[in-house]
Amino acid sequence: MSELDTAVAVVGLAVRVPGAADAQTFWAMLADGRVSLPAALGGTDSRLLGGQIDRLAEFDAELFGVQPAHAAATDPQHRVLTELVWQALEDAGLDTQRSTDRVGVFVGSGPDTYLHTNVLSDEQVTRSLGHEQIQLGNSRDFLATALSYRLGFTGPSITVQTACSTSLVAVHQAVRSLLTYECDVAIAGGATIHPLAQPEYQYTEGGIVSPDGRCRTFTEGSQGTVPSSGAGVVVLRRATDADRTGAPARALIVGSAVNNDGADRMSMVAPSPHGQAEVIREALETAGLTAADIGLVEAHGTGTTLGDQVELSALSEVYGAADGSCALGAVKPNIGHCDTAAGVIGLIKTVLALEAGVIPPTPSQPGDGPDVQLGSARFFVPRQALPWAEDLPRRGAVSSFGLGGTNAHVLLAATAAAPTDEAPELPGVAVLSAATPDALRDQARRLADWLDGAGARTSTAEVLGTLWHGRRQLRRRWAVALPADETLARDRLRTALADEVAVGGGRYAADEPSTAVLLPGQGVRLAGVGTGVGAADPEFAADLAELRQVVFKAGGPDLRSADGWPTDDPRLLDTAVVQPMLFTLGLAALRLLERRGVRPQVLLGHSVGELTAATHAGVFSLADGAAAVVRRGRLMAEAPSGTMMAIRADETTARELCDGLAIDVSGLNGPDNTVLGGDADAIAELERRCRERSVSATRLATSHAFHSRAMGRAAESFTDFLRTVPLAKPDLRVVSNLTGEELTPDQATDPGYWGRQLRGTVRLDDALGTLLRHGPTAVLGLHRGRTMTDLARQSARRLAVSPLITDLLGVQGQDEAAACEETLAQLWTVGCPVRLTVARPRRRTGLPGYPFAATRHWVDALARESVSVRPATSPDTPENPQLPPAEGGPDDAIPAVVTGVWQRTFGGAPLQPDDNFFALGGTSLQAAHLITVVNDELLLDARLQDLYEHSSLRGFITRIAQIAAERDDEELLRLLDELEAENGSADHE
């Protein structure tokens, strides 16, 4: 068994401590030996100040689906951990939403001070939200489970509480859960946040806090630590799994142990050298290591005289007698004591040191005494950053000892160097997503800056791989396909990002996306169509070759060389050739879509395109569909020649112009776009009539008058042929050319329908209207050109709908393969489940993280009203125009009371009359409490069902007014009198 078999990889991390809001800044501070405590920064007067973090009061409630009122009433420890877990998963390059991994959560936090000093001091908040809702956001019982709920984790979700050792014990528990296969990914960490902008503390002689605001671990005369806010999270997975998904490991956890001091100490809060030594020994035994294998110990190091002495005694007992040097470090002099988060912060420091190959210093500070006796000649306290010497084992250990006696010790090892093989190849697609348009624009700005700064040397393919595989996909989306050349790709990405920053080009992804497909008929250019995609996509090329072979076996033309036919090749004007070509290209494109994750919900084919659609929908088998298209094309090619003309007129006007002429309405493409067909002489006369009436007319380049009386014999023969072909009900919606409505099962299985479809008017405008009324998220043309999609755009404008309308293969002059990837990328932006061909990154990229909203969500301590539960620009008092008047009369207070209750329940921007309780995120628990508050405010007896059946604000107000109108006020007054009399009160008046 190798070390890797029982090792756990640290694949991601995030930290927020005084002076550093991310791991990169944290490491720079450590390597420079900087102290970020207020006493070291000056300006503290005589007060003793603790350390504080950034974003104490801010939280991105919208990203995590938390209502503003609940965000304000939620303990900042819960909120900070939520954001850190998000950042740590980004660092790990893991999108747990798209993976099948079971994610476990092991976290702990400090006391629920915010609940008692802030939330419960605000009567309005407690009354509006209720005890249960407040506990969900503040009790440590729900710390881990709330994270799992917000982020969709399904593994063990366990809150760990062992005082100062909490977060390192959480790491130990996470390691055990991974190694016993309870979960595939584990998140471990902790947070302690003091809910004051500038926390102060009181020094007591003989206590654990410092008298001068500084922590001086392992120096003579050190008298204590400095309480600080801080939080940290690591993402772990089994080392044997780490290389196949996500970012490479940053370090390996090779052993860990947890124990308790028991009764072998002076008091419950006193440390025990025996207990600490035993936990260190056990960790080494689980790892199969000796003391000499450890080159760095990150100590608990509180800076108290007794604590440091006991810890050094235990370290000396286990590590002191080994050969070689061993550095002793402690992070508390840099940032103070972060209580429950201290252990994981020390772990993160050690991971960063192993990764960098640098031993960071324990900072020297003004007033320091000399280093204490460390207990062993091999120990040293580095006072400046040192390169990890070759003779110093590249392994570290982290200790964390909890008040109460629970001890934890974790052993880490460096990983192999990152691979130096070449980056994945382009082309690819760059994607961004966010919860809001502003966040998307901020992401684009950050990425653009990073590409020109810290990421200038990172390959574009690695960037794309991280963005696609390593980021959760949110509702507001942006994407751009890039060329294969690195320089061109980089330039294109910069330009596209600049456009997004300037104008905001993102789209909202639909919750239930649907795709409609348009399949062209004759009249489109075919030379070279499909060759570009075929060259880039071998599966498309194979599909096309197979379909051409099916057509050939059905007696159709030999299309094997069609890719090389020139534009003026006469075969491209032969109906008997063109229709099978359209059939093969359409089906190959549909297969490409489904292979890439897009299964259309509705199909609309123009003329022969309807047979392609019907074949894909299962009306025809593939062989029978090919045979039908071959026979149809041949019959239409053998029909008498004719001419077609498009005029700018509606159907009625067109028929008037054709009166007395052997001309038929062949197609209706729009309200003023009619296609007519007939013999040459009749069309010439029609042309003259159009000139007389100033009607625009354009002859079409066709050899026949399709969908006219000239196709009568072909239609009859085609009907006879189809009587020999088995027809089935469609398993996808297909829109009929003949009726403009959805193709019915009876029509689909009627040979006569397909004969009439060949001969009759193509009601494309009606068909497009039917297609768009199905509400597709995207409408996709499967050809190179915009003929059908332009008509779809016109129809969409008339119907006032705005789906994404685009063409799979782009337009003439575009690179087909690039256009195809760009189209698929845009389908992804509207929510279609596209599988983009983006290679996984092979190394960690360090891309900028998510730009959390800087919205303040806070309840001020001892205030009578909650503040800043919405952006500062929003009015403090909700204004709700157009609320229905209550039935009790114009002075009735019901609308204002009910609206106020709803507003305080949800917070945020002023609610509107049509806002729905459940669409706002309301739960059954909130519903029950809201009914209680409304009843108390208005002395009513409304029931939960009243809210369920009238869930809009407008509807609920109306319902409450009805209940009030039915109330017996005299009986209510009598009952109040009785209650007051029972209580010995005077008359209620």
Your description of this structure?
The chain is an alpha/beta fold and 989 residues long. The protein is 39% helix and 13% strand. The strands form five sheets. The chain has an eleven-stranded mixed β-sheet with strand order 3-2-4-5-1-6-13-12-7-8-10, with helices on both faces. A five-stranded parallel β-sheet has the order 23-18-17-24-25, with helices on both faces. Helix 11 (305-319) links the parallel strand 7 and strand 8. It is elongated, with a radius of gyration of 36 Å.
Radius of gyration: 36 Å
Strand fraction = 5-15%
As a percent range, the share of helical residues equals 25-40%
Structural class: alpha/beta
In angstroms, what separates the terminal alpha carbons?
A: 85 Å
Number of helices: 34
Approximate shape: elongated
Mean of the pLDDT scores? 91
In total, the number of strands is 25
Largest sheet: 11 strands, mixed
Which ranges are low-confidence, i.e. pLDDT below 50, for 5 or more consecutive residues?
Answer: 863-881, 886-891
| Widest beta sheet: strand line-up | 3-2-4-5-1-6-13-12-7-8-10
Annotation keywords:
989 residues, alpha/beta, eleven-stranded mixed beta sheet, five-stranded parallel beta sheet, 34 helices, 13% strand, elongated
Topology:
Blueprint: E1 8-16, H1 23-32, H2 38-41, H3 68-72, H4 76-92, E2 103-109, H5 113-119, H6 123-136, H7 143-151, E3 157-159, H8 166-179, E4 185-192, E5 230-238, H9 239-242, E6 251-260, H10 273-287, E7 296-298, H11 305-319, E8 326-329, H12 332-335, H13 342-356, E9 358-359, E10 379-380, E11 386-387, E12 395-401, E13 406-413, E14 428-434, H14 437-452, H15 460-469, E15 476-482, H16 486-503, E16 507-508, E17 515-519, H17 531-536, H18 538-553, H19 575-595, E18 602-605, H20 608-616, H21 622-637, E19 643-647, H22 651-657, E20 663-670, E21 673-678, H23 680-692, E22 697-700, H24 712-722, E23 733-735, H25 745-748, H26 751-759, H27 764-773, E24 778-781, H28 787-799, E25 804-807, H29 816-829, H30 894-906, H31 924-938, H32 944-949, H33 953-966, H34 969-982
Parallel strand pairs: 2-3, 2-4, 7-8, 7-12, 8-10, 17-18, 17-24, 18-23, 24-25
Antiparallel strand pairs: 1-5, 1-6, 4-5, 6-13, 9-11, 12-13, 14-15, 15-16, 19-21, 19-22, 20-21
Helix pairs in contact: 1-13, 4-7, 6-31, 8-13, 10-11, 14-16, 18-19, 19-20, 19-21, 20-21, 21-24, 24-26, 27-28, 30-31, 30-33
